[in-house]
Prior knowledge:
The complex is a heterodimer of chains A (188) and B (264). Chain A is an all-alpha fold and 188 residues long. Chain A has 8 helices and no strands. In chain A, helix 2 (18-40) runs antiparallel to helix 3. The radius of gyration of chain A is 19 Å and the shape is elongated. By secondary structure, chain B is an all-alpha fold. Classes of the chains: A mainly alpha (188), B mainly alpha (264). The interface between A and B is large, with 60 and 51 residues.
Amino acid sequence: MDVTDATAVLAKARQGDSDAFRLLVEQHSRRAFQLAYRMTGNEQDAEDVVQESFIRAYRQLSRFEARAHFGTWLHRIVANCSVDLIRSRRSRHDHASMDDIAPIDQPQSDSPDPERLAESAHIGRSVSVAMAELSPLERAAFTLRHHEGRSIAEIGKTLGLGTSATKHSVFRAVRKLRAALEPLRGES
Amino acid sequence: MKHYTEEDLILYYYDERARRTDVERHLDECETCAAAYRALAGTLKLISTPETPERGDQYGLEVWQRIRHQLPEQEVPWWSLWFRADRLAIAGSVAVLLLAAFVTGRWWSSPDAASTSPRQTASAASPANPLNEDARQRILLTSIADHFDRSERVLTDIMNAPAGDDISAEQRWAADLVATSRLYRQDAVDAGEPSVASVLDELERSLLEFVHTPSHATAARLDEIRRRIDAASLLFKVRVLGDELRRREGQDAPRSRAVSAQVS
Lengths: 188, 264
């Protein structure tokens, strides 16, 4: 297929050309996985979100505005798919048990002595548990702000919330995380 | 000395606050706020960005292999349907037939025909074309489900709106939804969906109340609106009914008129 630039690939994908869509999938999968993993905190869930997001994107390609960036549009779909997945998990399990929560891998320091490693694992586990207690929207808004560095305006646009609701989702998330993690501050 | 709130400090931490230099100056001078900020920043710094499990160069291809057989039909924009050659031919034929019927009617006017009401005409015509009715019903359900999604977001905004802040943007959004809600409510009544119509009616009333609130509403006024939304379980109903309609969209079999009793 003689497709050399992103605009041409997108135009072809919008016409139903599956080869063109394959190129988009190949190009954006890793970034989509990274976001989905940060949002869900679970590898298998992130894989499910990536697949569901591309399927949704394919179905809705006609709604995509050609002048927008596909990556930005996909980012929005991945974020919302993650929220939907967390919401559906919640409704099935109400609250995840401690055993279901995988500790978030913390970045390791350059000199990983055993004590620091154990401490880092302990913090990682506490962060995972605290994040699991957030509502799906709080978790999404916090992840997009704290880990993805998105502005409040961008997060609102992504999640379909107004500015004040976005801010308050972040505030509530920070408040809950502080309550859960404050005791660790002395240990670290 | 006026102290900054936790919310101000969170916005400052994330570089979202206007007039950063004012906050910086205040933190230099006020030990209480400086201590509060140190505590906040110290905790947030514990939450480092997680390391994402590595995915190789072939990952995109693997994802493609997994989804390629699941790709659905692409949604087609409604306007493009009208420009397909076969549709244009059908539209042309219908126009010719309508013109012929009009001319014939002008020459042969019958008193019996004149006394037939539009409703009778519609009810006589609909059994002859059940497929169109079904498609129309499905489109209506999809549109109402989308409307419920948007309404859920506005209601969430209302439930979280801070007292004293400018809520005029949320009110404009709610005003748009009121107008749409009204149209859908009538459609739902016509389509024999009383539960949907009833929730749309409640939604319309709550949104109207919010629209007519001053744009810098007091805490008491906002609490009153929230209490009514809570008392009617409106957010819950909108969410459940939206899900229910989405579920029904996918079903081809004739649908039951009764939507879950839990929301009515």
